[in-house]
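Narrative of accomplishments. A recurring question from our advisory board has been how the design workflow behaves on a single, concrete structure rather than in aggregate. To address it, we present the structure tokens for one chain from the evaluation set, followed by the sequence designed for it. No filtering or post-editing was applied between the two.
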């Protein structure tokens, strides 16, 4: 079997939460048994409502957090067994683009120094020289050389996100995790950033994990999509499979909210009853059953459905796979 770039095996992560000064400490399950593989040059989209565990999973994959259970393997080696030198190499090969282009840049640093900081840390200088290397990165992401000495507050949101992208590229990574990279930007700017990331993926042979709640963004960017709900993946498949032949009722509801210009492509809007349950007190059985219009309580409220292959390469966690997309 071909070796994957990154593999997650049954990842769990919980946090201790105290709701009030006199309340007992509770356990919040942020990531609950996530497994997947990411191949070289592939883009995997992670979708779901706020609170589904997407960002926590991204931090676990980058070893910014440590899982309570499970194993994350990068280039065939477990993160748990990294030596100090291997960990430094991992930090260089995996980078992150943050959601908020306003708070993710140090306001006291000039942008040339912000972009160049990873180069200094990892000693990734090229023969062309430090300054020339940064200028080349700036130009590649659409920033003028004259901006080198300016501060973040002098730029728009789209320009700041370009600075963050240049910073991520500075050390020639193999994997970039982008956490809601366009959600804080105007719609007119979102398309520019999406197109830029697509171009960079091909040019530098990058692998991406794109975290987003907007499925229309993932439709344009992803090779495969994983849908998360209450910390677990409930459906995963190619972009075509998830959009045209979805297998999970939660995916159906998410897709119904995606706007379509063509009348024949429009789906009936599905409004889920209630809010996403609290991860402090998740439902028994299938975590989606309290909001699912197809739930059979005698089964769904009792037995958690496993994430299993329903079609070739298409996985879903549902007791009653209704072939909703057909």
């Amino acid at each position: 079997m071909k070796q994957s770039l990154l593999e997650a095996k049954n990842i769990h992560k919980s946090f201790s939460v105290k709701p009030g000064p006199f309340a007992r400490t509770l356990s919040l399950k942020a990531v609950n048994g996530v497994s997947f593989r990411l191949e070289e040059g592939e883009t995997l989209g992670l979708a779901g409502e706020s609170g589904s565990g997407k960002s926590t999973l991204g931090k676990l994959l980058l070893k910014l957090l440590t899982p309570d259970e499970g194993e994350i393997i990068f280039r065939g080696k477990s993160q748990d067994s990294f030596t100090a030198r291997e960990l430094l190499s991992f930090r260089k090969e995996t980078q992150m683009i943050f959601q908020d282009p306003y708070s993710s840049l140090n306001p006291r640093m000039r942008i040339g120094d912000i972009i160049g900081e990873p180069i200094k840390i990892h000693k990734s200088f090229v023969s062309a020289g430090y300054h020339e290397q940064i200028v080349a990165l700036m130009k590649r992401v659409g920033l003028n050389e004259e901006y080198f000495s300016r501060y973040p507050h002098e730029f728009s949101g789209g320009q700041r996100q370009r600075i963050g992208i240049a910073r991520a590229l500075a050390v020639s990574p193999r994997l970039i995790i982008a956490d809601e990279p366009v959600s804080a930007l105007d719609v007119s700017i979102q398309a520019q950033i999406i197109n830029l990331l697509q171009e960079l993926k091909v040019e530098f042979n990058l692998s991406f994990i794109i975290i987003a709640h907007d499925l229309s963004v993932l439709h344009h960017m992803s090779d495969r999509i994983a849908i998360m709900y209450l910390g677990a993946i409930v459906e995963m498949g190619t972009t075509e499979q998830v959009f045209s032949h979805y297998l999970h009722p939660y995916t159906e509801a998410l897709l119904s909210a995606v706007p379509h210009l063509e009348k024949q492509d429009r789906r009936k809007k599905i409004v889920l009853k209630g809010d996403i349950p609290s991860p402090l007190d998740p439902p028994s059985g299938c975590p989606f059953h309290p909001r699912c219009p197809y739930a059979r309580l005698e089964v769904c409220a009792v037995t958690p459905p496993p994430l299993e292959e329903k079609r070739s390469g298409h996985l879903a966690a549902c007791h009653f796979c209704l072939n909703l997309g057909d």
